[in-house]
Predict the structure.
Amino acid sequence: MDLYYEDKVTGAYDVASTQAGAFGGSMLRDYARLEGEALTRKLGQRAKLAPWLEFEWVDAELPHHEAVGQVVLHAVSETNRRLQWDASESVLVSVLTTEADTREYGGYCVDKVPYDKICLPRSACSHPERLAHVVAHEAAHVVVLNTAQKVAPQWLDEGIACLMEGRDAATASARLTSHDAWRAAFQMGGAFEVDRRDPTETPGVTAAYDEATVLASYLHSLKGDEGLVELLKWMAPKLNLGFVFKRLARMDPVDMALRQVYGFGQRELFAKVRGGPR
Ligand SMILES: [Zn+2]
């Protein structure tokens, strides 16, 4: 996994391939990702789209790679602009080989060193509009990760990503209400963690993304993109006396940041959005 997080994926694959089923198979999901990324590295090539953005693809599987690269560059740039991110952490966007098992996701983002990595299934590249949505979603995860320094809760991380992707909060809210699927804040984390290859989990996963969309859209309706950026910045650990004092008083950083920017805490936020969009 150390090699994987340095994106030395072929080396990691060589180490892991003899032990993929270890620990009772608990590593198999990570292994599927590693395998997909390693096969792509072996078959593919890389080019810079910008000084801070690299692109990886398999030529034979992506004859329109130049057009795909342009959509990727535009979508990441637009997300960075909206969320005021200076791209000080580089990004590698990898279109995974069709040999990768990508059934579980539409795309994913990994916090690596020396760059963050966005992986996309080949199927995401079949239509430019769809591709732009998927890339904007994953690019938002990169910004949230770096701006809030890993403190953002998953509902906020996914909510901002869904908002940047352009998901409709009114549709999401109506679906939650009709399925009676609203969750409380403490129930949200686990909802994103389930094994998505299991079709019985699909309604719960859809509901979690819907609620994240509604929550982020509500915050967005109050203070726009700027409010969300401010919220993320307030969550990040800071070295000032007020912050240290609040942490010593065991205040939750998410609650602290929400109160600071919007004037209400997490419980109130969840209560406000339930039952319809504002
Ligand atoms: Zn996401």
